[in-house]
Amino acid sequence: MAVQRRRAGKVSKAVYETQAAFRFTLRQFLRFSETTARRVGLTPQQYQALLAIHGFPGRDRVKMGELAQRLQLHHHSAVGLVDRLMAKGLAVRERSTEDRRQVFIQLTTRGVRTLQRVSAANRSELQRLRPHLIRLLGRMARLEDRRAPSSAVP
Hints:
This protein has five helices and three strands; from the N terminus they run H-H-E-H-H-E-E-H. The protein is mainly α. The chain has one domain (13-144): Winged helix-like DNA-binding domain superfamily/Winged helix DNA-binding domain (Arc Repressor Mutant, subunit A). A three-stranded antiparallel beta sheet has the order 1-3-2. The two termini are 35 Å apart.
């Protein structure tokens, strides 16, 4: 992902404070999610893979390259991750019937149940954090609107 470069200008302390508070709140959620995953015997990355597979838009299975992209991993790292999910009985590989070169990864019933447990806890935590996240996003938008140069229409 490319970093957008903006012309350096004065940034108020409030902008940095708000960004830091937002980052802290995101980190609190991620820490909660990581801990919840570990409690059911998953690494955080394994939970993210279960979520990426089952939550893929339009279908309940993914190609290895799609999973690697969703998790921002190299292809070979995604292969190793799927191998570990399969060893735990959480996912299976299936060859495409249309193109035998294509391999899909799909969750097993056990994988779906495990995902549901962690995801339910995460949704509860997000519900708890939601008002704070919304306030911080609103504050960031207001602060950025103040910084944006006015665009005068001729």
